[in-house]
Design the sequence.
């Protein structure tokens, strides 16, 4: 639930959510502005990277419509697996409602519950100003800048930022 829309429910995603989740992911990925995934990613590959491959996937639902989602997965194997990585999408119709903030806060709680001690975002496009502002406002620290590491579909090469937040010992 957000301040602007109390009808939002965040719950674990299921296979039955895929038909509602895929159009949202396809739209975001096809823009080539915020994710390093191929803008022409296949439905099968998108399902693997978002729904079935990660350790956990959640959807934000407004009544019956999926308006957002996030996944959690270990950022690295074995000795780095206590740090999770997360990805978020918010439907264009749900932007500006505080849903991204709600998803990130929810994901931090779930990450702790799953035994993760920290969260890291590996490749935040420097042009993704709303995400950068949100991560900073939620206590994430910019710990690195990768020059020209993100190939934005319309703006070309731009820096990518790495954000990190310690969640606590588990």
Sequence:
């Amino acid at each position: 639930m957000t301040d602007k829309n109390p009808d939002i429910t965040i719950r674990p995603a299921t296979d039955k959510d895929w038909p509602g989740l895929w159009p949202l992911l396809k739209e975001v990925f096809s823009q080539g502005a915020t994710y390093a995934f191929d803008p022409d990613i296949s439905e099968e590959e998108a399902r693997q990277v978002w729904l079935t491959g990660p350790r956990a996937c959640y959807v934000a639902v407004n009544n019956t419509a999926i308006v957002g989602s996030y996944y959690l997965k270990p950022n690295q194997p074995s000795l780095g697996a206590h740090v999770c990585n997360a990805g978020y999408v918010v439907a264009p119709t749900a932007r500006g409602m505080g849903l991204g903030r709600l998803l990130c806060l929810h994901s931090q709680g779930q990450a702790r519950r799953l035994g993760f001690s920290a969260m890291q975002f590996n490749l935040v496009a420097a042009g993704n100003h709303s995400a950068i502002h949100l991560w900073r406002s939620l206590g994430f620290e910019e710990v690195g800048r990768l020059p020209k590491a993100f190939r934005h579909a319309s703006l070309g090469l731009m820096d990518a930022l790495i954000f990190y937040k310690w969640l606590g010992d588990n």
Summary: The mean pLDDT is 95.
